[in-house]
Specification:
This is CBS domain-containing protein. It comes from Phaseolus vulgaris (Kidney bean). Keywords: CBS domain, Repeat. It holds the Pfam family CBS. Among the domains are: about 65-220, no CATH class; about 285-430, Roll (CBS-domain). The protein is built from 23 helices and 13 strands. The protein has a 4-stranded mixed sheet with strand order 7-13-12-11. The chain has helices at about 5-15, 20-30, 35-50, 70-80, 100-105, 110-130, 135, 140-150, 155-160, 165-175, 185-190, 190-200, 210-215, 230-240, 265-270, 275-285, 310-320, 345-350, 360-370, 390-400, 420-430, 435-440, 445-450, and strands at about 65, 85-90, 105-110, 225, 245-250, 255-260, 295, 305, 325-330, 335-340, 385, 405-410, 415-420. The protein is of the alpha/beta class and about 450 residues long. The longest helix is centred in the first third of the chain and has 20 residues, at about 110-130. The two termini are about 25 Å apart.
């Protein structure tokens, strides 16, 4: 497919700039953070002396891994059934004695999968709209479901309304899409939800696409493991400054991964430090006194409740963020929250979402609430705090609700900022000079630039 190398090159370009963006982000955080320098230095020194081996293991006691030759659709099932957002990818052909460098190929997560699905669908829709589908190598059925998802109401009506059968006919004949419109095309597009997951599992090229084939081009972050005896400061910096969502833990000289530390796990670990002087002196302060939220009103990306849920997922994809506040009106009063992991409802229960291309964000959230899939406090709820909330209460909300962000609102319920797991971790650490050279066993700068 001629356009795929271009997308891969674009991803490489984005990744090559990631270090400079991380440096800029961390400089901004440090300039906005209001923590006494002496306390910051004490915390940094303490985390530098705590070994990674002291961090609790994953709840199951065993890191869940996905084989590189697993079809993407099956990978989605594994992530969902295990209630995790990411997993390390293992090479099934690696010999038993191989070390981590040859055994593990990277990390797959929902974000990479969604990016791949949407870009593949856009490629398919663009190809068929210009009559070049055959040359692009796009398989039958692709545009019928995924083209509509990728383009929705923003794309050509002829593309969004194609049935899978019509798309197949166009692809086989190599002719323009508008010449094969079927009478039942609008209804087929409205049944997008029922077709979506089926396409990933049963249609080409999606059926044959493996995790390995999308791992490099669509990853959001590199695979950067740490050793058991590395410092926890290194892990905290990787999860905050360097924007990693998870850090694999390996034991030098042994091939198997021994732990998988996520942003969520670290913040839960911080909450368990309640009662310790160093934690309480920070946690008892109001977030505004600590400089939070680091992300201001103007920097918060939101979605109106009457916009299409499709646009919400596209905003997350385009801005490489995991969630959006759902707002209403010019003052942007918050009424809910959607996250990238909400896509699992679409993938695993497509019968809930007929007429998907016309579904608004509010309708999407209401369907989740009314479904049997909704348990406990879902990510749709407008979980917020006020600027005078304490850091301890924010950490407790993040951990008890199992969410990745909390939105800060004013007296009129207008969003004035957002606090993420990354921001919380950044509050507790800074990077001393030459840290990675002194404490880290691998060439981390080189790995982060890959």
């Amino acid at each position: 497919m001629p356009l795929v190398p271009n997308m891969a090159q674009e991803q490489e370009f984005r990744t090559s700039n990631s270090l400079s963006k991380c440096e800029t982000y961390f400089e901004i955080i440090q300039s906005r953070k209001k923590l006494p320098q002496s306390l910051q230095e004490t915390l940094t020194d303490a985390f530098a002396k705590i070994p990674v081996s002291s961090f609790p293991e994953v709840p199951s006691g065993k890191v869940i891994e996905i084989l590189a030759d697993t079809p993407v659709g099956e990978a989605v099932k594994i992530l969902s059934e295990s209630n995790i957002l990411a997993a390390p990818v293992k090479d099934p052909d690696a010999v038993t004695s191989s070390d981590w460098r040859s055994k593990y190929l990277g990390i797959i997560d929902y974000s990479a999968i969604i990016l791949w699905v949407l870009e593949s669908a856009e490629l398919a829709a663009a190809a068929i709209s210009t009559g070049t589908a055959t040359a692009a190598g796009v398989g039958a059925g692709t545009v019928g479901a995924l083209g509509a998802l990728a383009l929705g109401m923003t794309g050509p009506a002829a593309i969004a309304g194609l049935t899978a059968a019509a798309a197949g006919a166009a692809l086989v004949g190599g002719i323009a899409a508008d010449n094969v419109m079927a009478n039942d095309a609008p209804q087929a597009a409205d049944d997008l939800g029922e077709d979506f997951y089926k396409v990933i599992l049963e249609e080409e090229p999606f059926k044959s696409t493996t995790v390995k084939s999308i791992l490099t081009s669509y990853r959001w972050a590199p695979f950067v493991p740490v050793g058991k005896e590395s410092a926890m400061l290194t892990v905290l910096l990787l999860l905050s400054k360097y924007r990693l969502r998870n850090v694999p833990v390996i034991e030098p000289g042994k091939p198997d991964m021994v732990n998988f530390i996520t942003q969520s796990a670290v913040v839960k670990g911080l909450e368990r430090c309640k009662g310790r002087d160093w934690f309480d002196c920070i946690a008892e302060k109001c977030i505004s006194d600590l400089g939070l939220p680091f992300m201001s009103t103007a920097e918060v990306i939101s979605i109106q409740s009457n916009e299409l849920i499709l646009e919400a997922f596209k905003k997350m994809r385009d801005n490489k963020i995991g969630g959006l506040p759902v707002v209403e009106g010019p003052r942007k009063s918050i009424v809910g929250n959607v996250s990238i992991r909400d896509i699992r409802y679409l993938l695993l229960r497509p019968e809930m979402f007929t007429n998907f291309r016309k579904l608004t964000v509010m309708d999407f959230m209401n369907k989740i609430v009314s479904s049997s899939l909704q348990t406990g406090n879902g990510s749709h709820q407008p979980i917020t705090c006020k600027p005078d909330a304490t850091m301890q209460s924010v950490i407790h909300t993040l951990t008890s609700q199992s969410i990745h962000r909390i939105h800060v609102v004013d007296g009129q319920n207008e969003v004035v900022g957002v606090i993420t797991l990354r921001d919380v971790i950044s509050c507790f650490v800074t990077e001393p000079p030459y840290h990675f050279d002194d404490y880290y066993g691998f060439a981390v700068k080189e790995m982060l630039s890959q």
